[in-house]
Amino acid sequence: xxxxxxxxxxxxxxxxxxxxxxxxxxxxxxxxxxxxxxxxxxxxxxxxxxxxxxxxxxxxxxxxxxxxxxxxxxxxxxxxxxxxxxxxxxxxxxxxxxxxxxxxxxxxxxxxxxxxxxxxxxxxxxxxxxxxxxxxxxxxxxxxxxxxxx
Length: 150
What we know:
Layout: E1 9-14, H1 36-43, E2 48-54, H2 64-73, E3 77-81, H3 89-97, E4 100-106, H4 118-129, E5 132-136, H5 142-149
Parallel strand pairs: 1-2, 2-3, 3-4, 4-5
């Protein structure tokens, strides 16, 4: 058995694609499976000790796969999910208790809440649970949503 690498790495963004949970085709695209076991196997020699599992457009608003992945990976890992803006506060707080730490707006490929809810929802999840917001945006489109950042 090899000794672990000296560095300790936080994997800031990866997807888990477990066929046990539903996927939604995104413009006809469905990614190949990549389970927690696949992730652990693929990264075992890299020194990854923590990370953020991020919901993809092909997972819609499903939380089952993400909660399962976090349970399997352990408390050093957190989740970034996609939620509708109408999600009740109690559900956001429950997801926070399960390790979710951010909400994703996927402007590039869809599958998440629309950007018109970005400012209000971002403020709400920050005030309620201290969550960050992740944007998946083509940089050429930043100009048209720049007023939201101000």
